[in-house]
């Protein structure tokens, strides 16, 4: 089954992070669907989820918040990882940052096994309200790209390893289950053959008047 990597982004930065994650999962041999969270119609076909959002003043991207509410409980028994992208400094790399309110809600609703925060990016090339904010931050010396691609990719490789281990364990369990069923069938066949042989002997004895 496929891994879903879904994200919410306005300026494209978080979408790039999601793309780095998807690339690592694919490099590990896992099939991946990469798409904006708001475009996901159903999740039944996915074996695992990586969900990420840009972080703004009001919290997570609205499309990601809606995804978490829409599919609450639908990933029970399947692994889920969350990430946020936002800090415009090195704080995300300097230490573990606590998840924001919307991330905490998503961890409970989906539920998720882990959340991590990555640095964000904002530049003067941005448009709309993001561009206005970028200009203000640039004047204050805070604009720039604070993402760490290698940290993102290393995290994704860890996820790929976990999914692959779970897949091998599941395949082993299935193989053992099939072996048990085959053995039971063989035992039943042997018992049936013994019963038939005993019945044939009984019939022969009856015919001979024993």
Total domain count:
1
Q: SSE string, helix = H, strand = E?
A: EHEEEHEHHEEHEH
CATH topology call: Rossmann fold
| Uncertain segments | 171-181
C-alpha Rg (nearest Å): 27 Å
Form type: elongated
In CATH, what is the homologous superfamily? Flavodoxin domain
Mean pLDDT, rounded to whole units? Answer: 83
- Report the helical percentage: 40-55%
**Text of the CATH class:** Alpha Beta
> What CATH architecture do you see?
3-Layer(aba) Sandwich
Task: Note the gap between the termini.
Answer: 64 Å
Strand content: 15-25%
Structural category: alpha/beta
| Number of distinct beta strands | 8
Question: What's the number of helices?
Answer: 6
Main beta-sheet strand count, sense and barrel state: 6 strands, mixed
